[in-house]
């Protein structure tokens, strides 16, 4: 919640950086995670500013893993904002850091987002990129945010003209979201499914023969 990340930032001292159990800087993580929370609350300018603060902090403390995390979270925020250019910039930078330092997880996360960005113009390429990244995440048992990732895959399948496959993926994402209680993206999944399903025929609505 907003209260939690604000409390984390209030307790953070950049002069004495603290690391999470997974190795990321806690201040960078709080800014990055908080940016998503702000966007979901409808505070888009504040969300973008906070994502930028996360990247700037990671650079100041010169911590490549945290920098990668900040870029991956920022790329996801910009996807939710539908800003393809910023997704490409942030996700590409995250992938470059992962290749340089051997970080796997955030590289695959960023590849999903790159697949979405490229898939808006080249859908078949986008599908291949997303599915390959999801396979690698599966191999590493990394299942967080899977309903969200599946929504991106469904969108690109729809762009390919394969609406049936897109609908099947969305059904799986909705089921997964509910079963795992990972419901933060569930309203968007229902909206996407509703936009994909054909509208009822006017005669059927009126009860006409």
Q: Which structural traits does this protein have?
A:
single chain; 209 residues; mainly alpha; 11 helices; globular; disordered C terminus
Summary?
The chain has 209 residues and is an all-alpha fold.
Structural notes for this entry:
The structure is a single chain. The N and C termini lie far apart (about 50 Å). The protein is an all-alpha fold and about 210 residues long. Residues about 200-209 have low confidence and may be disordered. Helix 2 (about 25-40) packs antiparallel against helix 3 (about 45-60) and helix 8 (about 145-160) packs antiparallel against helix 9. It has helices spanning about 1-10, 25-40, 45-60, 65-80, 85-100, 105-120, 125-140, 145-160, 165-180, 185-195, 200-205. It is built from 11 helices and no strands.
Measured distance between first and last alpha carbons? 52 Å
Largest sheet: none
- What does the radius of gyration come to? 19 Å
Computed structural class: mainly alpha
Write down the oligomeric state: single chain
Mean pLDDT: 90
Helix content: over 70%
What is the overall number of helices? 11
Low-confidence stretches are 202-209
- Let me know the number of strands: 0
Shape: globular
- Our estimate of the beta-strand percent is under 5%
Order of helices and strands: HHHHHHHHHHH
């Amino acid at each position: 919640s907003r209260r939690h990340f604000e409390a984390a930032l209030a307790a953070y001292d950049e002069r004495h950086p603290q690391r999470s159990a997974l190795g990321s800087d806690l201040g960078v993580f709080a800014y990055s995670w908080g940016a998503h929370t702000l966007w979901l609350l409808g505070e888009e300018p504040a969300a973008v500013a906070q994502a930028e603060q996360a990247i700037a902090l990671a650079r100041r403390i010169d911590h490549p893993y945290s920098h990668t995390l900040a870029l991956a979270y920022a790329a996801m925020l910009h996807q939710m904002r539908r800003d393809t250019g910023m997704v490409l910039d942030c996700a590409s930078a995250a992938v470059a850091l992962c290749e340089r330092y051997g970080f796997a997880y955030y590289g695959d996360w960023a590849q999903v987002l790159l697949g979405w960005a490229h898939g808006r113009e080249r859908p078949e390429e986008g599908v291949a990129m997303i599915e390959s990244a999801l396979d690698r995440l599966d191999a590493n048992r990394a299942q967080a945010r899977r309903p969200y990732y599946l929504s991106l895959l469904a969108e690109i399948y729809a762009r390919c003209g394969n609406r049936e496959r897109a609908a099947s993926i969305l059904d799986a994402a909705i089921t997964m979201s509910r079963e795992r209680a990972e419901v933060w993206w569930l309203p968007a999944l229902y909206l996407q499914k509703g936009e994909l399903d054909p509208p009822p025929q006017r005669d059927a609505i009126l009860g006409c023969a």
